[in-house]
């Protein structure tokens, strides 16, 4: 694997959660961090002490909370979604819920995304009554969805992601194996679907690596990178063939599962866990002559939540601090032995698993 930089824990906290809770997701919000967990709470905590303020705990945020997104790292607003069919916006300054959006059939939501600028929110549903939908609301006028895509997937919508610089470009992934790209400014659903990639395996995570390249990771840890077709071009003129197929990442990274992949300015970091060895590795994925792993810059977190699965990873680059949350109901804060080897910014994961967003029975 080459040289490995280790990170050491300096703080740990259960966030005063009930016993047997899972930490699902960590996000930055203002100068604080926020987490959602299996007790259906939303908790905001200090990034240094990991202590929770009583006035920043939102109990029963949902019945079956599954998703957490921030409107922007510096803005004290959060958006959540749940299996109760609601999307809710929270203002941390007032400590109140400010917006509530509802699926008209109370279909469980499994995925969530916020457009650049924070003006639109998209949510994807579980397959119910032979229909899985992607719904989009304009938060400036949220009474009704501005778009509903009901025919583009035929199974659970497990991933949603907006293009980092184009608020009108939305990606969706599903357990049907498809990754779709939409132009949300086009009203007609058929016309709004501008590109489809068939990963041929249930989508766990997918997102934009660059303006044109996207990744897809399946629930059985198969990774590929695809290139979107440029406007007015039949195929990419790049010499590198697409897709770039990495295949099953478990033997390649000597891991047992992939937590997530976090893009950052044309590169990414893969979080690879092994519960049998209680380790979590952060491995850069970058583009030089082509997409490849930089194993020489691997960061290893030893005794990462013991034998429990790590569910979420978040990196605060300014302080070279890594935050992890797992199925042991604990958040750990880590610092690198060598700050120069700090991995790219790692955003938090969502707790999507095929059919079961609360626990993955197959792991």
Architecture blueprint of SSEs:
Blueprint: E1 4-13, E2 23-29, E3 32-37, E4 42-45, E5 52-58, E6 65-70, E7 77-82, E8 86-91, E9 96-102, E10 109-114, E11 120-125, E12 134-138, E13 147-149, E14 157-162, E15 169-174, E16 178-183, H1 189-192, E17 193-198, E18 203-208, E19 213-218, E20 222-227, E21 244-248, H2 249-253, E22 257-264, E23 267-274, E24 279-287, E25 291-293, E26 298-302, E27 310-316, E28 321-326, E29 331-336
Describe the structure.
This protein is an all-beta fold. 2% of the residues lie in helices and 49% in strands. It has helices spanning 189-192, 249-253, and strands at 4-13, 23-29, 32-37, 42-45, 52-58, 65-70, 77-82, 86-91, 96-102, 109-114, 120-125, 134-138, 147-149, 157-162, 169-174, 178-183, 193-198, 203-208, 213-218, 222-227, 244-248, 257-264, 267-274, 279-287, 291-293, 298-302, 310-316, 321-326, 331-336. The strands form 6 sheets. Strands 1, 22, 23, 24, 25, 26, 27, 28 and 29 form a 9-stranded mixed β-sheet that branches. Strands 2-3-4-5 form a 4-stranded antiparallel β-sheet, with no helix packed on it. A 4-stranded antiparallel β-sheet has the order 6-7-8-9, with no helix packed on it. It is globular.
Task: Please count the beta strands (DSSP E, at least 2 residues each).
Answer: 29
The biggest beta sheet is recorded as: 9 strands, mixed
N- to C-terminal distance = 24 Å
Helix content: under 10%
Provide the descriptors you would attach to this structure in a database record.
4-stranded antiparallel sheet, 363 residues, 2 helices, disordered C terminus, 9-stranded mixed sheet, 29 strands, mainly beta
